[in-house]
Design brief:
The complex is a heterodimer of chains A (251) and B (250). Helix content of chain A is 22%, strand content 31%. With 251 residues, chain A is of the alpha+beta class. Chain A has one domain: Fumarylacetoacetate hydrolase, domain 2. In chain A, the strands form four sheets. Chain A has a six-stranded mixed beta sheet, with helices on both faces. Chain A has a five-stranded mixed beta sheet with strand order 4-15-14-10-11, with no helix packed on it. Chain A has a two-stranded parallel sheet with strand order 3-8. In chain A, a hairpin with a 2-residue loop joins β10 and β11. Chain B has 250 residues and is an alpha+beta fold. Chain B has a single domain, classed as Fumarylacetoacetate hydrolase, domain 2 (Alpha-Beta Complex), CATH 3.90.850. Chain B has five helices and 15 strands. The chains are: A alpha+beta (251), B alpha+beta (250). The A-B interface holds A 38-39, 44, 63-71, 85, 106-109, 112, 115, 135-137, 139-144, 147-149, 201-206, 247-251 and B 36-37, 42, 61-69, 83, 104-107, 110, 113, 133-135, 137-142, 145-147, 199-204, 246-250. Chain A: One of its GO terms (biological process) is oxaloacetate metabolic process.
């Protein structure tokens, strides 16, 4: 519990004192949510400029894809590393606001959707872009491009009460200290309540499930040996190394 | 504490004979409760139809289904739910492999050590939604992941199946035989699938691999119909197919 509090305080501006006393319990509860996660639902093309930069049409409905919980890479005291599998030399970074669901949600109306949010996190939807292009052109699933281990780096979870308005946040990402992505969540095409409503009408969301709400423009490659820093301005930040994946089997 | 099914207790007179199979069955069923994902292997059976022109795959086609899509067979099981505006779903009867423990970068030679059990599963799909996704280069999500789209039987312990390539899968709709095939027609076999998948993503205890369906006979099942399916002489399941009703509770 103490470690989580330290991690938050070392990475963001001080939380208002009226909330300080409640912070450790809230932060711990939010972090426990993530441990219960059963799936990650990604929303593609949810920022207009990002859809255009990849030459994609702007969607009429959210584009959904799944990432397994085995792809989580939790930010930590020791810098966690994204693993690039052979024969790739790089992956594309996509900085996103992650929404963490607080309890079972099915057929949720938009007006009630925020009642089902437990917290937020900063996440990266790491993508093997070439593999994704091949999958798109051949009508195949996006599994190889999106679902590999360490392809969902994620920060500690910030409790919902620390974020009065998820539409008023700024996402940013740097590679080796060079700014690559910066964008406001107000540019999201489909907003958080709509996404929760839409997704929960297709599949039941469970406590701890994570929705990756899309990425602003500026996606691009990060190579082995480089370092990613990313965050939500004034709230949370996280850091990840990018390394070659070494294959390790233990019987 | 271990729960021993009353059925097993009745069948076996001697308590020492009853213990081992009962323990294995209960342990196998608990595996499924810890499942974190379902990995499907598409196009993984040889077709005996003469005019299907699918190219031979060099690697399995993998897709993900969420654990929220499980529909567990049993006397109190609900129906397979067809969401509006669809009128039918496509049925695909499959042998499911249940992983026994964390598996990463597993060599084929060791792969069967990571199998905890088997089950009979149906990979329910919406062909309409899936075709639209494929032609637009989009993920297969809407057609595959919805609630109740992965009906599954109880788990049979690994020890109950000496040879997983010697099984007959079958499926009937309203009593009419639709699919019947042999697992010997599987293209990428179980050790290869476990090795390949675990080189892409870590498999956890309880994770399920759907190993593909005999393609001849895959077809629609409509709202109001009933599916019976199984592995001959091993497993039998039954599911109604109904219209999905939307229900929200706070």
């Amino acid at each position: 519990m103490l470690l989580v509090v330290y991690h938050l305080q070392s990475r963001s501006r001080p939380i208002p004192s009226s909330q300080v006393a409640a912070l450790p319990a809230m932060a711990a509860a939010a972090q426990r949510l993530l441990a219960a996660s059963t799936k990650i639902v990604g929303v593609g093309r949810n920022y207009v400029a990002h859809a255009k930069e990849l030459g994609n049409p702007v969607p009429k409905e959210p584009v959904l894809f799944l990432k397994p919980t085995s792809s989580f890479l939790h930010a930590g005291v020791a810098t966690a590393a994204v693993e690039v599998p052979e024969p790739l030399e790089s992956l594309h970074h996509e900085v996103e606001l992650a929404v963490v669901i607080s309890r079972r949600a099915r057929d949720v109306p938009e007006a009630s959707a925020m009642d089902f949010v437990g917290g937020y996190a900063l996440a990266l939807d790491m993508t093997a872009r070439d593999l994704q292009s091949v999958a798109k052109s051949t009508g195949l699933p996006w599994t190889l491009a999106k679902a590999q281990d360490t392809f969902t780096p994620i920060s500690a979870v910030v409790p919902k009460s620390a974020v009065p308005n998820p539409d008023d946040l700024e996402l940013w990402l740097k590679v080796d200290d060079e700014l690559r992505q910066k964008g406001p969540t107000s540019d999201m095409i489909f907003k958080v309540p709509f996404l929760i409503s839409y997704i929960s009408s297709i599949m039941t969301l469970m406590e701890g499930d994570v929705i990756l709400t899309g990425t602003p423009e500026g996606v691009g490659p990060v190579r082995i040996g480089q370092k990613i820093k990313a965050g939500i301005t004034g709230l949370i930040e996280a850091e990840f190394d990018v390394q070659r994946r070494s294959r390790t089997f233990s019987p | 504490k271990l729960f021993v099914s009353p059925k097993l207790r009745k069948k076996n007179q001697s308590s020492t004979v009853a213990t081992l199979p009962a323990m294995a069955a209960a342990a196998a069923q608990r595996l499924l409760a810890s499942s974190t994902k379902i990995v499907g292997a598409g196009r993984n059976y040889i077709s005996h139809a003469k005019d299907l022109g699918n190219p031979v795959l060099k690697e399995p086609v993998l897709f993900l289904k969420p654990t929220s899509s499980f529909l567990h067979a049993g006397p109190t099981a609900g129906p397979i739910e067809v969401p509006e505006p669809l009128e039918s779903l496509h049925h695909e009867v499959e042998l499911a492999v249940v992983i026994s423990r964390r598996a990463r970068d597993v060599p084929e030679a060791s792969a069967m050590d990571f199998v905890g059990g088997y089950a009979l599963a149906l990979d329910m799909s919406s062909n309409d939604l899936q075709s639209a996704s494929k032609s637009a280069g989009l993920p297969w999500t809407l057609g595959k992941v919805q609630d109740t789209f992965t009906p599954i039987s109880a788990v049979v312990p690994k020890s109950a199946i000496a040879n997983p390539y010697d099984l007959e899968l079958w499926l009937k709709v309203d009593g009419e035989l639709r699919q019947k095939g042999l697992t010997s027609d599987m293209i990428f076999k179980i050790p290869f699938l476990i090795s390949y998948i675990s080189s892409i993503m870590t498999l956890m205890e309880g994770d399920v691999i759907l190993t593909g369906t005999p393609p001849d006979g895959v077809g629609p099942v409509r709202v109001g119909q009933k599916i019976n399916a199984g592995i001959t002489d091993l497993i039998d399941v039954e599911f109604d197919v109904e219209r999905r009703k939307r229900s929200f509770s706070y």
